[in-house]
Each structure stands twice: as C-alpha cells, then as structure tokens.
Amino acid sequence: MSNMSDVIEAYIKRYLEAEEEIELKRNEMAVHFQCVPSQINYVINTRFTTERGYTVESKRGGGGYIRILKVRLNTHSQLVDMLLALIEDKEITENIATDITCRLCQEEVVTEAEAKLMMVTLSQNFHEDKMQNNAVRKHYMQVFLEHLKYRT
C-alpha cells in the first residue's frame, strides 16, 4: 500500500494531466485525505519542485490557496538552459541531482540508460565533507547539462 504522501502526489498529478495549472485549498485537501495540513505542505514542497518541472505559488489566510503550474518548455535546449540557470547559485544535493536527472529522462532529453549513468556518477561521495560532495556534484551536473545543450 502506498504511503499518504504518494497518494496525495498521485491525486494532484491526475489533475495536472488535464490542466496545466490547478489551484488547491490546503485545508480542504487535508479534510479530503484525513491528514494534517502540514502533510499537504510536505507533499507540495518535496514533490512539486522546480527541479521536477513545477512552479508553486501560495497565499496564506482564510481565502488562501496553493497554485501549481506544470512548466512546459518547447525544446530540450530551453529545458537545459532553465536547469543550468536554476543550479547556478544552488547547492546540488543527491536528491536535487536525482530530481533533475529524472526530469531529463521524463522529457526524453536523455535515455533511461544515460540517466542511470548520470545517477551513478552523481550519487558518489567524493569527499568526507558533504559541502565538497555537493560542489563536485554541481560541477558534474553542469558538465552534463552543457553537453546536452549542444547535442543533436
């Protein structure tokens, strides 16, 4: 049986298949799934990230909402450019590297075999220091993306 986060994610993704943008009420979702509102926040914050191809905007308060937009780009080059800009000032953890690699595979920029090779490289611990690992991971991700940008 799936955990609650997986169920909530699947529910939201079903709506996003039909609409590019959806608006949710956090409290209504919590009642629907019989969970606390923070569970909805957790799913939104971890499963609908920019790296995974989503833009999230929220407004708190009584009339508050959470708006989720699936980002669709016209070309692979646009996707790669967007990802390069996204990681420019960001620490690349193993989770972020996984999200980016999965997105490249879903958008058919890389094959499944290429994605697996990327993940083997990006999941390595290069140093004892976590920050150094993330810096090396970022460098490799930038190299991969630059290569993909000019691939035909």
UniProtKB/TrEMBL annotation:
GO terms for biological process: regulation of DNA-templated transcription. Residues 3-71 form the CtsR N-terminal HTH domain. GO terms for molecular function: DNA binding. Residues 77-138 form the CtsR C-terminal dimerization domain. Keywords: Coiled coil, DNA-binding, Repressor, Transcription, Transcription regulation. InterPro entries: CtsR, CtsR_C, CtsR_C_sf, CtsR_N, CtsR_N_sf. Residues 1-28 form a coiled coil. Belongs to the CtsR family. This is Transcriptional regulator CtsR. It comes from Brochothrix campestris FSL F6-1037. The lineage of its organism: Bacteria, Bacillati, Bacillota, Bacilli, Bacillales.
